[in-house]
Amino acid sequence: xxxxxxxxxxxxxxxxxxxxxxxxxxxxxxxxxxxxxxxxxxxxxxxxxxxxxxxxxxxxxxxxxxxxxxxxxxxxxxxxxxxxxxxxxxxxxxxxxxxxxxxxxxxxxxxxxxxxxxxxxxxxxxxxxxxxxxxxxxxxxxxxxxxxxxxx
Length: 152
Ligand code: CUA
Description:
By secondary structure, the protein is mainly β. The chain has one helix at 2-23, and strands spanning 25-26, 29-30, 32-34, 39-40, 55-58, 63-71, 74-76, 80-82, 86-94, 99-103, 108-112, 115-116, 118-124, 128-133, 146-151. The chain has a single domain (2-151), classed as Cupredoxins -  blue copper proteins (Immunoglobulin-like), CATH 2.60.40.420. Strand 6 (63-71) and strand 7 (74-76) form a beta hairpin.
């Protein structure tokens, strides 16, 4: 009978962890990483409606979409500017090799893979300034690859 209890306890713990990861908020808001199946080839980026001109676009009263392109060794746009009290969905892809898209002080932390679109939604409450870093080794100047995210 005790073994069964342990099993239930272990399962609850796992469910708890998943819930924490999914709904956890660190610092400013919530980042929900979802496994979007969206793909785009690097050579198609220039002709793409969204990534041809990386930018932030308003899509609702307090809702925005940010189209971000990573390439050695920059992020575009730079800086990324979003309003406070907003919900921003980031769509991030790479023009060349695997990069990272991480914003210390938030829970934004995604791998950016050429051919794929990483998607995450984040809420921003207060005006603030964040650095964006690439946390996947991408070449000689990987350590210099950074950007700026301004909540204004
Ligand atoms: Cu890009 Cu490291």
